[in-house]
Amino acid sequence: MASKQTEPSRLKILLVDDDDLVRSAIADVLSDAGFEVLATADPREALGLSGLIGPPGVVITDIDLSSVLNGFDVAAGAHRLWPTAQVILISGLPVNHTGQALGPRDHYLQKPFSCTHLLGAIAEVVNKARREQR
Asked: Whole-prediction pTM value?
């Protein structure tokens, strides 16, 4: 269940995961929680949507994508395109398996995770962003 503080009916989430089953399952959880979800397998497509979708509040991206771009590239692009967007990187492997480090505005969630953990991570990054904006 999403926290009332996250205002899920107004929060737009961009989801990037190349695994169709995982992407679909996460998108369903987010939609059921009341979030507006745009999901894609292609990181280039995700970053190319900046003028079409408006800024998402949260970007959730898998680290390992079937692309020359990985989740860290998506995070960097998201921060550049949407400075207020929060990024949650997800992976079945430890966060440092690529040799890249999380940015200070990024959050990491290791797969498998429960719906409660995912929604809690979203609430955490949204609430952190709100505190920093004050």
From this structure: 0.88
